[in-house]
Amino acid sequence: MVLLTEIDHVAIAVRDLDAAVAYYRDAFGAEVHHREVVEFDGVEEALVKVAESYIQLTAATRPDSPVARFLDARGEGLHHVGYRVDDCAEALARMVAAGATPVDAAPRPGSRGTTVAFIHPKGSFGTLIELVEE
After folding, report:
1. Residue 36: which CATH number?
2. Which contiguous run of DSSP H or E holds residue 4?
3. What is the pTM of this model?
4. Separation between Cα atoms, residue 124 and residue 27, nearest integer Å
5. Would the pLDDT of 2 be above 90?
6. I need a surface site. Which of 9, 14, 44, 86 has the fewest CB within 10 A?
7. Is 46 exposed, middle or buried (0-12, 13-18, 19+ CB in 10 A)?
8. What is the DSSP letter of 36?
9. Is 5 within 8 Å of 134 (Cβ atoms)?
10. pLDDT tens, 59-72?
11. Domain of 96?
């Protein structure tokens, strides 16, 4: 059974969310489809719709957030890939059974009313993965 139904989003960590939104508007004619502060993760995100997926521009709202640490260590750029799944708990369990290292022990609330779980880049070929159930 295939767990991945499509790419939900590609997340890009940025220092200045408004500047990134303006760049995507000016360069691509793209408009923000959804914008939200996710307190749990310490980020503000702006989603630009591309077909049935999104570019997620994400900026830290506090210095101890994972995105702030990423920006300090690596600078702006690709942060993670979000894969859409029908059942986040099942996808997480199957990934762990296949050897993945979970960041989240169990699925939790995400932005847009989704349910999410993150998989650590260790064991995922260097890519932080977010499982997203709508």
Report:
1. 3.10.180.10
2. strand 4-13
3. 0.95
4. 32
5. no
6. 86
7. buried
8. E
9. no
10. 999 999 999 999 99
11. 4-133
